[in-house]
Amino acid sequence: MQSHSSYIRIRNLDKTYASPRGPVQALSGINLDIARHEFVSVLGPSGCGKSTLLKCLAALEPISSGTLEVAGKALSGPPDHMGIVFQRDVLLDWRSILDNVLITAEFRHLPRQEYEARAMQLLRLFGLEDFAHRYPWELSGGMRQRASICRALLVDPELLLMDEPFGALDAMTRDELNVELQRIWTETRKTVLFITHSIAEAVYLSDRVVVMARNPGRIAEIIDIDLPRPRPLSLRETPEFGRYTAHIRNIFTNIGVIKHD
Length: 261
Prior knowledge:
The chain is an alpha/beta fold. It is built from 8 helices and 10 strands. A hairpin with a 4-residue loop joins β9 and β10 (218-224).
């Protein structure tokens, strides 16, 4: 990826936390370029700094050293035109699904009438139109996470940050939402940074997969995923898909994350 074409440009990024036992380095020497409209997954074991990297990019955590640029500007606060989806849907139980989706517009003091139409359009896209006036506790986990994605997309962000959004869901619901996310990305071509523990999920969704190692968190390898789109779930049963997943497992074996008997 040529740096001059990069929408996101990260150079020599380090992140160190203070602790009672001394400083803890969460990220070391991160160098990454992400092009506009690209879908990039960050994959790695617990404790490798995946979520920390996303939080730095969202300006939820300050970096310790290095540079981080979005759209050619050094990051000094949350990027303009950013949406974010967390592992937990963080919906407010006392607000309807529609009102939860509209929170983003309220925070930005945008006209409710205009964005209510946009919210209903998104709920329709995600199969939630009939649940707009229900409350979060009346919905399944997968439906709640769909609503949280609608909320992130409400103001049509250029950049979508997703921190293990499907990690708490059952396998079938996760597959369903992988297909939905691919469809939405194909239609809207957002720039997406997607955090996951799942090798298959990363390969299925991504243009590139950033494989991370830990102690400290660092990039072990970046892999281009050259598979045709749109990708049916059946693609995961093909030899081509299997070669990517096997290669990534070998990386984790070589860095000691996966151990053989």
